[in-house]
């Protein structure tokens, strides 16, 4: 039995807690800045934390073996420091996106991920970065917000990313050399399942890569058209023009638009693309394919 602390109470944290409580004997606590009566009513233990209070954080983490973080920035670095001080054995930082090696191509603002990894290396703590590409939930009815995921991304509402499945429109970024960009994707449920399975591994590699599907952006549109039986109205937008639109959104202080354009640029620039996946050699999990997931969530 392992003592686990999940930092944050968003949808991903809840998926992880659900797998921990239903599929394992591990004990877990959820760390949140606020009381969470809905989570407590599920029988889960929620401890209120103030990430600026190191001594209380150390006290809360005493006896914890593994921290799974869904929080970012200064709060996460404070959590890593406190965890190192009380000898927490393993730390999974809040990543769950594209590979860190492609971060330098990203147009998104840094949420402190690189700092967190540097700190984990500095403290010599065992860690693993979960790389899973984009969540399928970006294409769900109600978007990621319907699962309480992605508030920090500012593209969590339905239809804000690549494809709007209600209006059946798609915005497909392309590179000036005409290369078709690829994207890796996984359902957040499968990510949570894999995260929980990884707790039992004797050793963690510094990165665990998984995806349910790897498709080109036009291939993604093709899947939606096949599954829905409808043709999408497609507009192709170059990464260069997205960069200009991003600049305009920044000048007018439109944060949501900035985020949308940055996410589209990242898709076009291949920031979520990787072709090797070491998850299946580590744990026995076959992630759901995008097509099956899409059919189920939209009842097509
Ligand atoms: N691959 C994808 O497509 C994708 C999409 C979305 C997210 N993600 C990943 O999923 C993880 C969660 O991201 P998210 O956007 O869903 O969550 P988020 O909105 O950034 O928040 C995560 C948690 O952080 C805590 N938090 C928020 N603001 C904070 C602050 N100022 N100080 C301290 N704590 C704060 C909150 O916990 P409490 O309120 O309980 O304290 C919240 O539950 C991240 O690792 C992200 O990279 C991946």
UniProtKB/TrEMBL annotation:
InterPro entries: NAD(P)-bd_dom_sf, NmrA-like, NmrA/Isoflavone_reductase-like
Domain NmrA-like per the UniProt entry, residue ranges: 38-256
Name used for this protein in its record: NmrA-like domain-containing protein
Keywords, alphabetical: NADP, Oxidoreductase
MF annotations from Gene Ontology: oxidoreductase activity
Pfam family, one: NmrA
Source species of the chain: Uncinocarpus reesii (strain UAMH 1704)
